[in-house]
Amino acid sequence: MRLRDSGVSPGRRCCGCIRLAVPPFSAVELQGQPRLPHEEFQVENIALLDTSFRSENDGDRIIVEAIHDQFPAIGGAPSIPTHVPMRWHSRRLAHRSKLLAVTGTNILSRDIFSMRQWPLRPRDISAMEGKVVFCGVGWWQYQDDILEHTADALKSMLLPDVPISARDQYTADKLTGVGIHSVNTGCPTMWGLPLTLPGVGHRDEVVFTLTNYNPAVKQDSLLVDWLLTRYQRVHVWPQSAKDERLLRRSKKRDRVNILDRGLSALESALAGSDYVGTRLHAGIRAAQLGSPMVILAVDNRAIEIARDTGLPVLRRDDPLEVLDSGMVKLSQPQSMKLPHREIEEWKSKFTGALSAHL
Fold first, then answer.
1. d(Cα 200, Cα 198) in Å, to the nearest integer?
2. pTM (predicted TM-score)
3. d(CA 62, CA 104)
4. Cβ atoms of 27 and 123 closer than 8 Å
């Protein structure tokens, strides 16, 4: 097999990966290929379909960190990014791996070939056939029924005997409806939460977030004003690079304290603050740290998880008087109802699969 000249030397690092100028391989073409002298990847037992790798969204990091905490055996496993199309070296790694673990997020949709969150082609699915475990995944948005080719692709990828771990019942029902075995485990970020969360409104400061992919400029502005009537100081944390750009253009930027990017900035601010914002996993991070929190839902994700678990959620687009009433109710400690039996049963199956492939 001869390298094409692309101006990049064999084995040179580019964006954290080994970049080799070779044409894409199909799953069939990958079989029996000799190892290149500068090639990074060897036969791997386990690899991660890593939803945080090359992601600009710190919420993805919160999810993947939680999965690593729950399953230390995956530590050190190589990562295949899900946010970009699968390059030949990623597909080769997928083909050579025995188990591929999808690390959560709202990565599923009715049409598996039209998702920007996980851009896949048929040859990618062939490379992953019979190897994939889905850990705490959710549905992209409220949608119509799953397309037949999506159901077929998911069934072909699944590792036998490990059902899909869905993070809400809506997702589980979508999958069950097309004959795919799934179980509602909730999101892995919530598996370690206490049974009772503290009530909000008893601190002087609050951390707010907005959501760049589902903006509501007028409502977001009203929410900042509303929070300024309830708290002495409002911090705003940009969970993604696009959130930060949106904040810098906001007319309210001089009335709030815009925090730096990164989880450390969020965690420092939460040490003495409530969390009230539109970002689901920033709110869950607050709950993990014991900070009072309310998520202002902008789509199906927080709404469905709250329906299942009692996670403190209001709707961003509700009138302010409705939000006021909700905040009064949520000022008291909130009881959680996590599916502990389903979580433990699924963890046992996944742990068994990991042990079998290590």
1. 7
2. 0.86
3. 10
4. yes
Token output for 185: 């485990």
Position of tokens 């059902």?
A: 163
> How does pLDDT run along the chain (358 residues), one tens digit per residue?
333 333 333 333 333 333 323 233 333 333 333 333 333 434 479 999 999 998 999 999 999 999 999 999 998 899 999 999 999 999 999 999 999 999 999 999 999 999 888 999 999 999 999 999 999 999 999 999 999 999 999 999 999 999 999 999 999 999 999 999 999 999 999 999 999 999 999 999 999 999 988 888 899 999 999 999 999 999 999 999 888 888 877 777 788 999 999 999 999 999 999 999 999 999 999 999 999 999 999 999 999 999 999 999 999 999 999 999 999 999 999 999 999 999 999 999 999 999 998 7
Q: Which residues are CB-contacts of 32 (< 8 A; sequence separation ≥ 6)?
A: none
- In this structure, what DSSP letter does residue 73 have? G
**What is the per-residue DSSP string for 52-100?**
STT-SBHHHHHHHHHHHHH-GGGTT--EEESSSPPPHHHHHHHHH-SEE
CA 229 vs CA 204, 275, 321: distances in Å:
11, 15, 13
Q: And the tokens for 114?
A: 């039209």
3-state secondary structure (DSSP) of residue 177: coil
Do the Cβ atoms of 167 and 185 come closer than 8 Å? yes
In Å, what is the CA distance from 110 to each residue of 4, 105, 190, 344? 38, 15, 26, 28
